[in-house]
Amino acid sequence: MQQMHPENWITIYFGFIFVIACAQMVVVYALSNARNPAPGLGLYTIYFMAAVLGLIAFALQYSSSTPLRMDVSSAASILFSYLLFLAAGQRAQIKTGRIVLGIMCLGACAGVFFVEPREIFSMQAAIAAFFFAAAGLLCGWRSWKTRNVGDGITAAALMMAVSMLVLLYLLRAHDDYFQAQTVAFGIYSSAYVLVAIGFLASVLIEDQQKLSNISTQDPLTRLLNRHGLEQTLHITLAQAARHQQPTASIVVSIDRFKEVNDNFGNKAGDQVLRQVAQSLQRISRASDAVARVGGKKYLLILPCTTVENARVLAERIRINIAEHALIVNQQQIAITVSLGVAGALGAVELDKLAGEADRAMHLAKRGGRNQVASVESKPIHLSTHANQT
User: Fold this and answer.
1) Domain ranges of the chain
2) 257 by DSSP, 3-state: which?
3) What pLDDT was estimated at residue 102?
4) Residue 183 pLDDT more than 70?
5) Fold of domain 226-382
6) Average pLDDT of the residues in 199-206
7) How far apart are CA 206 and CA 201, in angstroms?
């Protein structure tokens, strides 16, 4: 069998890296055309391009029979390891230490002009280990926070940091510069492949999560939409039917919402919608399901709750919202809501229960707004103590 010379495997390596880089650039280009590009996409793109150039420089220097006076590949290694740290930080939305570490990176890169190749090689191994470890920690933190396996794969860069310490040991203990270069070549190549796979997996998982949220979540208020409400309540309503438990619903409608949009603009209207949604989430219980089911309308489903208790909660919601005006351009916008309450015992038809609460809400509107009305298979009753506006 013909002996594999450095020129042969360098050619194979170039082809391997070129294929990965081309595939990576095609995917990154497609992602960049999306309406909401993935966080850190720009810096990851720069990292991939810089890393390819650095690996090529490393391979050329490694296969060269003539030793070079300046270790350019070590400077490139420092640079693209710092770019990886920046990209991971931007994706995790953490910017602490970027400037200080950037100055340190530039200083280390400038050292190739003044320091012997072996010394700069040791320095770049230590600095790259630090940046790999920092990037790995950032990716690991984001993976834990967002439950994204792709970021966990990228966090394998942290393991690369451990391998970089082996370089220093080989170079210091055995004074084997060639072997240390070989290990470094393998580490950087492995890190590049892991980061490429991890980043793509992270973006794909993130997009899948967004699509899932779109089908069940209102994008403006982050509350459930009608489909998400039905999915959330599937088991809860089945248990209520099995154990003959009470279930209550509250329909909340913002009073004079069209006037807010007409007088203050749609952005102010969106702020009102978000503020009311936050109040509903804050006041309701963890077991309650809160959804936005219309332009200015919200629906709360309260498991194991009687109409009387639901009326108490509705009155708390009414008072809380009325007490917190929205400030727009140093002008207060008074926000009030009309609420309808309905209840059922045992088996519950969600549409029927919501329809009864909606009917009660419309009576509250006709009664003067900013009040609570309720129904429970009986005539509808208005609150006698509600403030009218």
Assistant:
1) 6-216, 226-382
2) helix
3) 86
4) yes
5) Alpha-Beta Plaits (3.30.70)
6) 86
7) 8
